[in-house]
Design a protein that fits this description.
transmembrane helix, 5-stranded antiparallel β-sheet, 140 residues, alpha+beta, 4 helices, membrane, TATA-Binding Protein, transmembrane
Length: 140
């Protein structure tokens, strides 16, 4: 995703950080890297608890600033899914080697549950991603 703004880089960063604080978002800028993420669930809604992180690069051209980046689901959620997938694959391969049909079925069920969790997180996380996109579009 790419966003272009009609401001200088230094003034844009100040405005962006102020808007992020008002919208319960956390913004950090280091060199040319930018990260906007959700951190507050003050309303108590569970769909807002799904993390969304916008990671990208910030470029300054004359009097314009542009941001290019993508969304991720946060470090802990991504790590959880990766570790679960590795454990399921390891158990499945051992079960196939030992010809244990019950464990193969269990691995298939665990895989289905993991896929369902990933789909639900992507569907429910759209609202959180829309908050960040709306904020960036308001600044244009």
């Amino acid at each position: 995703m790419e966003f272009e703004f009609n401001r200088e880089k230094s003034s844009f960063i100040k405005v962006l950080k102020g808007k992020c604080e008002k919208n319960a978002l956390k913004c950090s800028v280091e060199d040319n890297k930018i990260m906007i993420e959700t951190f507050d669930n003050s309303e108590g809604k569970l769909e807002d608890a799904i993390p969304a992180v916008f990671k990208g690069t910030i470029e300054a051209k004359e009097n314009k600033t542009s941001i290019k980046g993508r969304f991720t689901n946060g470090f802990y959620l991504t790590t959880l899914v990766a570790v679960a997938a590795i454990l399921i694959i390891a158990r499945l391969s051992w079960s196939i080697y030992q010809k244990q049909l019950d464990n193969i079925i269990m691995c298939a069920i665990a895989t289905a549950i993991l896929v369902i969790v990933c789909v639900v997180v992507n569907i429910k996380g759209k609202k959180t991603k829309e908050r960040i996109i709306t904020l960036l579009k308001q600044l244009q």
